[in-house]
């Protein structure tokens, strides 16, 4: 399901990130002339290799046991954190474990269970709608084709790619806010529209890399390259980043900005994969 062996775990979890090549993070040298497309592609692929070394355990940060659970969790993740979804879905799937169960759910009861994820009325309508379509048109099974998934209520291309890549092994790029922000900072694209971003990035990497690339970029966006204050001084790919300096460049101050396992904090999953080097997240209401 997109999870990788635990090689390099201690390096990634126990010590602060280092720049590519092992030295301290530093600013990328400004090129004397505009970067060619070929040079950008080579730099992009090197960034991917560096991220693979930093996050050998990268994985989807939603708890799920089957395609239906991943589909539902991804729909719920809109406008909230994966952590809040993971804290909510145990009760949801205990009450409605199958599409047939969720299609027959009392709307008010369904809304109350998913209330912590926000926008719960609209999300409840989507869950009831997609469950009904799965029951009536797909024999209660989640389809494994993009063109079928995007016809389900509440399911767009991003959600479809998450499900395809992590439940069916079909490569796909997950263009969420983290992914879009980082690939623009890295000058892989200048596009804002998610589908155009997806097309530009897909042209840079082999199809076989798409799913794991998505996990690595999103991991980095959540842990290091934050929206408002990126931890530039603690970023391992600083020498490859055209946007170096947008955030905190002092190494000690930057280390304090690191999140989740890199910052010694719990992750987002209550049930992370065995090779995850950080602590599981607490259940809803704990602590």
From TrEMBL:
Its EC number is 4.2.99.18. It catalyses: 2'-deoxyribonucleotide-(2'-deoxyribose 5'-phosphate)-2'-deoxyribonucleotide-DNA = a 3'-end 2'-deoxyribonucleotide-(2,3-dehydro-2,3-deoxyribose 5'-phosphate)-DNA + a 5'-end 5'-phospho-2'-deoxyribonucleoside-DNA + H(+). It holds the Pfam family HHH. Gene3D superfamilies: Helix-hairpin-Helix base-excision DNA repair enzymes (C-terminal), Hypothetical protein, domain 2. Its cofactor is [4Fe-4S] cluster. SUPFAM superfamilies: DNA-glycosylase (SSF48150). PROSITE patterns: ENDONUCLEASE_III_1, ENDONUCLEASE_III_2. Belongs to the Nth/MutY family. This is Endonuclease III. It comes from Streptomyces flavovirens. The lineage of its organism: Bacteria, Bacillati, Actinomycetota, Actinomycetes, Kitasatosporales.
